[in-house]
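To make this tangible, this section ends with a sequence with its structure tokens:
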Amino acid sequence: MSEISSTGDLMLTVLESVAAHGPVSATQCARLCDINRTVAHRLLTTLARRLYVIKITGGYVLGPASMAVAAQAQPSIVSFAKPEMARLARDMRETVVLHGLADDEAVVLDQALDLTHVVVVRHNPGSRHPLIRGASGWSLLAFLPAKVIERQLAPLPEGERQAALQRLAKVRALSYAHSRDELQLGVHGLAAPICGADGIAQASVGILVPQSRATNLMSMAGPLVACAKAIGAKLSA
């Protein structure tokens, strides 16, 4: 096996912790990454100098350089999805979020905000969460290869595993997933997979609403699935 750079590996670990948990302080980052605070501060400072992270009042968050790299990594999905997401956000008057896949996690690639309402749900681009949480995660997992599903569900107790398999079957039948309070308290979501020609999910598009407007959410399932299919058609063209 080829040797790796321990410093480079640590820096990527720090960057991933900021993406998943930001804003974080150097102390919080050190705890999350199980490293010395001084080391965490030095790595964060280096990343900040290159604009991969930026420091705000609450700590460090992803910076413009990270966003640029993310856009380069999956340009077709983001560019194809953006106009469809903007249209859906405008029509539904709610937040629309695009998730991709990274290391068996769902990662926010982009979002379209509708600012009609005072209360608006937001997702930080670059933030991650497990595939067994949130509508976006479940919608992706349901349309991934069986070996990925097995790997994700393996740590669960048998009862939870069976419930998860039933939930995935329902997502496949409906072509969308529904969640409430799984990622953010007081937030409900719908998400539909964006699949390639092989039927495997490459991303997901979702609608997020605060609990106060959740009664209207299920009526948005049809337009959401249509949006996901439109993006998928562009990818497969």
Summary: The two ends are 39 Å apart (CA to CA). The chain is about 50% helix and 20% strand. The mean pLDDT is 90.
